[in-house]
Amino acid sequence: MSTVVLVRCPSYDRRTVEDAVEAGLSALPEAEPIRPGESLLLKPNLLAAIPPGSAATTHPEVVRAVALFLARRGARLTCGDSPALDDPGRALRISGLTAVLEELGLPEADFRRSVSVPFPEGHVLRRMDLAKAVADADGVVGISKLKTHALTGLTGAVKNLYGCVAGREKALGHFRHPSPASFARMVADVAACVAPRFHVMDAVVAMEGNGPRNGRPRSLGFLLFSADPVALDAVAAHLVRIAPDTVPTLAAGAARGLGVRSPDRIRVSMPRPEDRPASVPGGIFSCRAMPDALRFDDFEAAETEHSLLAAFFRRSGRLGRKALVHRPVIAASDCIQCGQCIDACPTDPASLSRESGREVPVYDYGRCIRCYCCQEICPAGAIRVRRAPLAFLLGR
């Protein structure tokens, strides 16, 4: 049985967030045994250098409140992440986190250099290149963001840890493990190697639709806390009524031993009486019995395809992927011709290019591996994942 602590937090008002984090972490036993002087790395989700109002990154007030909680217990803290294309320092600054680090006197974590770390117990990866900050820390605290994701359905505690892989090595991971299931198994290995102390999820304002960068901010008003990243993501999925079967990191994480995903084995705790629905006066319930008063019926999921038939066609070669697996599509009217989609493509040569006489990049869908890195990185929201021409054969 795993426990996920759920605390209402209706806004990013500083005092409101501090009180919610204090309540959540005080109710989580794994957050308390901090040795004075030990070094902890705070690992938020910094997808790119994006202002916090977009809901694409962990909000700085959540990171600030977690840092204060741990600093009061004597921890030495650093903070950072490895964006796909942006410089880590620039991502910290634009996301609002540099101001937090300067206020609290915390150093930027080293996500520019990498360390090759052996991991013989890995299911997919026996060795991985982790950011030096991850290798140097005594422990890691994951501070994720609840967002939709075209490849994995949901970005949460498990997927957030893929940012511990340094720089462009992440693109190689997409290339070597292009299917959702294979990619999820690789991410689960990274999460098992990093093994954070506990996780906090920012769901005060989440992202729905065309995530993880260009969806719509959606106010949910919650912070979630757990030592089990799989259970945390499962509860988040239940909150927004995303089917757990469409989140491959849940299956991979459970199979890897990171935690439990069965809703019958997850206990949800709401420690503050004022947060609880009337139907659960004691504040404890199983994830399967989550009250409807806490759930969001109209949350828009990402356009994903994780059926068994889709998995078969992903492996069936160029023609199968081209005709039957969901594809990224560029809206020419929104494209700003920045070329970041081409830079982000992990295939060699890239699956999209600038053709003579055309300003908007053009896809070679036969080469495209459907990793959706281009959609994830597009700064203009010009790329969406759409059904392939014959996707109706998959039952969608």
Question: What this model shows, in words?
Answer:
The structure is a single chain. The chain has 396 residues and is of the alpha/beta class. The chain folds into 2 domains: 2-294, LarA, N-terminal domain (Rossmann fold, 3-Layer(aba) Sandwich); 308-394, Alpha-Beta Plaits, CATH 3.30.70. Helices cover 29% and strands 21% of the residues. It has 14 helices and 15 strands. It has helices at residues 14-26, 60-71, 88-94, 97-104, 132-136, 157-160, 169-176, 180-194, 229-239, 248-255, 308-314, 318-324, 340-344, 373-377; strands at residues 2-8, 39-44, 76-79, 114-118, 127-131, 139-149, 153-155, 198-208, 216-226, 266-269, 284-286, 327-330, 352-353, 362-363, 383-386. The strands form 4 sheets. Strands 1, 2, 3, 6, 7, 8, 9, 10 and 11 form a 9-stranded mixed β-sheet that branches. A two-stranded antiparallel sheet has the order 4-5. Strands 12-15 form a two-stranded antiparallel ribbon. Helix 9 (229-239) packs antiparallel against helix 10. It is globular and about 65 Å long. The two termini are 35 Å apart. The relative contact order is 0.14. The model has no long low-confidence stretch (mean pLDDT 90).
Please summarize what this structure is.
The protein has 396 residues and is an alpha/beta fold. The protein has helices at residues 14-26, 60-71, 88-94, 97-104, 132-136, 157-160, 169-176, 180-194, 229-239, 248-255, 308-314, 318-324, 340-344, 373-377; strands spanning 2-8, 39-44, 76-79, 114-118, 127-131, 139-149, 153-155, 198-208, 216-226, 266-269, 284-286, 327-330, 352-353, 362-363, 383-386.
